[in-house]
């Protein structure tokens, strides 16, 4: 019996082309959904039955947290589906702009507890010379169908590398090998259609409120602002974000998670209205906790009540804070949940 793999599609470059009859310089848009992508892969998938299910056909900057939760619900349903022996795994395809965020949220929600879940996409559209979409999809299916992928948490398969969903980051806007997992590197690779996963990626601790979030109706997400900072920035906008409807803020600090000394009064002003998390803009390495004692350093920020961003990028910290707030967490419960997941 062939292995059954569920293909969940959200759109993105992997299904994009120029609209028929459009101007040559009009640009590409998502045009091809799950059924077409699955049909085109059939010649390369002997021994695997790909079951397509289109959730959205959108560019990934326009995806919502509700879309990611819809993916998590579909994965849960697949894990409970015993038809024809059940599913061996799930592949999720979407645009690469927010692929790392989808993979992270799915991991936080524990989507891969019962089935391998592999996220992929493409850097070149369907009509581009050397389009990478089919190869990435085939590799993702190979990983999802492999028993070796179980227990690794959500994975990302891209350019024959396999990354842990919680660590993966898009580091190039154009290269086909756009994703890395610095400083750890990939957990495996696909060689000659065989997944090799020698490095066990321990799943992130699951958010305790995951089941409640998955059962909640769409909408109702608290707005969380992501604010960068740099040389000479006093962050004077922070205390005004609450009036715009923001329930929380993530500050991408300099270096190990630092702001200018003159910004501290505005950080404290924002903390009077809601949670403020601080992470590093550096991209590699953690937000520090106890190294720098000057005003605006991480000791000062954490002492003022900011949440520690741990290993998270600003984009991932923003989503984690939104999940925690949507779950109704506040005070010490919010800090405990957020910082435990930030450290994983």
TrEMBL record:
InterPro entries: Asp/glu_Ase-like_sf, Asparaginase/glutaminase-like, Asparaginase_C, L-asparaginase_C, L-asparaginase_N, L-asparaginase_N_sf
Domain of life of the organism encoding this protein: Bacteria
SUPFAM superfamilies listed in its UniProt record: Glutaminase/Asparaginase (SSF53774)
A Pfam family: Asparaginase_C
UniProt xrefs under Gene3D superfamilies: 3.40.50.40, L-asparaginase, N-terminal domain
Domain Asparaginase/glutaminase C-terminal: 224-338
Protein name as catalogued: L-asparaginase
Species the sequence originates in: Cellulomonas marina
């Amino acid at each position: 019996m062939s292995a059954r793999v569920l293909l969940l599609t959200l759109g993105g470059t992997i299904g994009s082309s120029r609209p028929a009859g459009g101007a040559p310089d009009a640009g590409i848009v998502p045009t091809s959904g799950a059924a077409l992508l699955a049909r085109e892969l059939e010649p390369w998938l002997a021994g695997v039955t790909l079951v397509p299910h289109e959730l959205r056909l959108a560019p990934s900057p326009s995806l919502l947290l509700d879309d990611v939760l819809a993916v998590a619900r579909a994965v849960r349903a697949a894990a409970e589906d015993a038809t024809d022996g059940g599913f061996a795994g799930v592949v999720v395809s979407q645009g690469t702009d927010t692929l790392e965020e989808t993979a992270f949220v799915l991991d936080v929600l524990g989507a891969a507890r019962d089935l391998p879940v592999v996220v992929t996409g493409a850097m070149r559209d369907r009509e581009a010379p050397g389009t990478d979409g089919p190869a990435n999809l085939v590799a993702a299916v190979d990983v999802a169908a492999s028993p070796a992928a179980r227990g690794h948490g959500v994975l990302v398969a891209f350019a024959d590398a396999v990354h842990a969903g919680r660590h993966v980051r898009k580091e190039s806007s154009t290269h086909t090998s756009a994703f890395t997992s610095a400083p750890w590197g990939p957990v495996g690779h696909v060689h000659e259609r065989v997944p090799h996963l020698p490095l066990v990626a321990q799943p992130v601790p699951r958010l305790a409120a995951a089941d409640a979030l998955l059962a909640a109706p769409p909408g109702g997400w608290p707005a969380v602002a992501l604010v960068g900072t740099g040389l000479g920035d006093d962050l004077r906008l922070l205390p005004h974000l609450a009036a715009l409807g923001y329930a929380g803020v993530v500050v991408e600090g300099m270096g190990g998670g630092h702001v200018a000394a003159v910004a501290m009064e505005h950080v404290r002003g924002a903390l009077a209205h809601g949670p403020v998390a601080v992470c590093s803009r550096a991209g590699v390495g953690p937000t520090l906790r106890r190294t720098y004692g000057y005003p605006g350093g991480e000791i000062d920020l954490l002492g003022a009540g900011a949440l520690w961003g741990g290993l998270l990028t600003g984009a991932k910290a923003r989503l984690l804070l939104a999940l925690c707030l949507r779950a109704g967490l506040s005070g010490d419960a919010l800090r405990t949940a957020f910082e435990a997941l930030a450290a994983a």
